[in-house]
Each structure stands twice: as structure tokens, then as C-alpha cells.
Amino acid sequence: MNPSELQAKNGNVADEPSLRRFEVAVIGAGQAGLAIGYFLAQQSRHFVILDRAPTIGAAWRARWDSLTLFTARRYDGLPGLEFPGDAATYPTRDEVIEYLERYAETFKLPIALDKEAQSLSLTDEGFVLGLEDGSSIEADQVVVATGPFQIPKVPVFAAELAPEIFQVHSTGYRRPSDVPQGTVLIVGGGNTGFQIAEELAATHDVHLAVGSRQLPLPQRFVGRDLFWWLERIGVLHKTVDSRLGKRMRERDTLIGSSPRSAKRHGVKMKERAVGGSGQRVTFAEGASLEVEAVIWATGYRLDHSWIDLPIADDSGALRHRRGVTDLPGLYFLGLPWQHTRGSALLGWVKDDAVFIADEIANATKNRTDHVREGALA
């Protein structure tokens, strides 16, 4: 089905404000939502993609200006559209945003922006999504594709630091010129923490507090991109239930960064930050540091509190099997390690997206068969 045919089938949601019933409602217009949208369009589903932001790919817009992906362009395409440019090079944040916008336009996906889902409930007629503006829509099936970057996490002791200290989560960091001069502490030893620390070290006195040991991997190895090797040996397709998958999930991986490379950039390494008071932050080894600025590269937590349904276990973890929940018709997409290491990555989310799309097709067929059998009885 070509783009014009998809547009004719799905229409423009903004042009049909009275249209409130869909086969499928997708929550989130990031890479996961767009990927599942492509497959739903291929199935000729009547669906809508909702997003609370005014633009597509809002999570990418919330990242720092110089962000560069650690996956080459050849691995960054969503289904049906290659990522443009030299396949061996690494795209920037702005290029990803432009690509996501072009993707939505190419396939004329039915996206409704500025539509925040505030509740999700289930009735005898199907799912009901309550929106911020007081309206609601109904859907036979729902895909929650809100991604992993939802609520920024910051340690409790951040509140004990002096009010004059510049503090920002990594989601609020944009460029070095926004950070006051003086001693800057980056807390968090993932790829984000290392990238920001190395950038800031050119203009600031930077310290990086790392709480756990990560596995550093080079971006290129023996003349090949790292992900070429990971694909070749099948690592990216190891599932979360496999022995290797469980080990990989428990240990962070650094791509193209390491304590050694950070030190070469002038970054001073610290152990885990465990407390703070006034202008000083203390570390696990007992040392402390007086700082003028702190950037919390401490990750995010998921927030599904708006879903009024039994979707979590006693520990608060989502109950699902590769995104399929215990509630028929409710799915998740784009979660970290939803099925494999690539589940939340731009170039690999399509694997889970096509799986969920097939589940939706099977559920629709079973429902249709059941109705037909009831009519004939």
C-alpha cells in the first residue's frame, strides 16, 4: 500500500474531531508509535496515534544539542524507510527528529498531537481513553508506546544541596554555555553521563560520579561498526529470558565511551555519589567535592499511573510477555528489554512492533470469528 492509499484509508484525525471510535489507539508518537503505525496501516486498520506533545519525537527534542547516536545510520531506519545519509556515519539528534517527522509524513500516519491521555479504563464495549481536554475516545485495542524516557530520576539528597547550586537533570541540559563556570559534577555513568562529561570538559572543571562498573565497548572494532559485530554473532537477538540476555540486562554497556577516554578529555572520575549538603557532594569512598553545578544523568522511571487497570505485579513491575499483557487487547511497545537489547532502540523497535501488530491482527480475527459464530448460532 502506497502513502496516498494509506492516507485515504486512515484520513487526518485533526480533520475529523467527531471521530471517537477506533480499532486501535496508539499512545505515543515517538519511534515505537510510528513503527507500529506503519504496520497497522499495512493491515488497513482504522487507528489513531495520540501524543501529549505538540510535535513528533518529543523525547528526542528533550535531549542535548550535540547528542550523536552510537548506532550508524544503516541501523537507524524504521520499517519502510531507510535513514538518509552515509550509512557508516552516526546521525545527530536533529537529524533523528527530522527523520521521524518525514517518516510520519511519508506514510501519512493518523497522528493527533497535543492529546494527552490521562486515563485508560476498560468497559464491556472496549477500552476508553480519557484525554486532558475532557474528551474521550474508545478503541478495541490499545498500544502504549510511550517509551522509556518518562519521569526523570533524581536522588533524594539533591534537595539537600544549596539553592545557589545549578542543578539540572540530563533531560534539561542543552549546551556547555548554559552551565555556570566552576566545578561541575555529572552523576551517572551511562552513555549519557559520559557524553555530557566529555563535552563539558572542554570548558569546565568536570567530575563524573559512576555508581557501578560498566562494560565499555568500542564504537568500531577491526574496521567494522560495533553493531555489525553484535548482529553477526546474534547478541542483539538474545531475548530477556536467555542466560546471556539476563546477564546483559543486569549490566550497563558503554558504547564508544570509557573511564579511560573520559580521562583523556580531562574528566576526573569519582565513585558513587551518596549524599550532599550545602555546596558539597559526598562519595562512597568518603571523599567530598564542592561544586557549582550538578547534572543528574541518573536515568528515568516509567510512569503508567494513568492506566486504571491491573497491569503491574506486587513489586510494581509491568506484567507482560513481549509487550502482550494479561488484559486482551492491551499492549506495550518500546520498553527497555521488552524482548531484546534492541527493544527500545530506534533501529530495532520494528521487531517488537511487527510482533505486536500480528497479535492485534490475530485478536481482531478471533473477535470477528466469534461474532460470526454467534450470529449463526
What attributes characterize this protein structure?
five-stranded parallel β-sheet, seven-stranded mixed β-sheet, 25% helix, alpha/beta, globular, FAD/NAD(P)-binding domain, disordered N terminus, 377 residues, 21 strands, 2 domains, 9 helices
Summary?
This protein has helices at 3-10, 31-42, 58-61, 93-106, 191-200, 226-232, 243-249, 259-264, 349-376; strands at residues 21-27, 47-50, 111-112, 117-123, 126-131, 136-144, 151-152, 166-169, 183-187, 205-209, 215-217, 220-221, 224-225, 253-255, 268-270, 273-277, 280-283, 288-290, 293-296, 300-301, 330-332. The chain has 377 residues and is of the alpha/beta class. The protein has two domains: 3-150 and 302-376, FAD/NAD(P)-binding domain (3-Layer(bba) Sandwich), CATH 3.50.50; 153-214 and 252-299, 3-Layer(bba) Sandwich (FAD/NAD(P)-binding domain).
SSE arrangement:
Layout: H1 3-10, E1 21-27, H2 31-42, E2 47-50, H3 58-61, H4 93-106, E3 111-112, E4 117-123, E5 126-131, E6 136-144, E7 151-152, E8 166-169, E9 183-187, H5 191-200, E10 205-209, E11 215-217, E12 220-221, E13 224-225, H6 226-232, H7 243-249, E14 253-255, H8 259-264, E15 268-270, E16 273-277, E17 280-283, E18 288-290, E19 293-296, E20 300-301, E21 330-332, H9 349-376
Parallel strand pairs: 1-2, 1-6, 2-3, 6-21, 8-19, 9-10, 9-19, 10-15, 11-14
Antiparallel strand pairs: 4-5, 5-6, 7-20, 12-13, 16-17, 17-18
Helix pairs in contact: 2-9
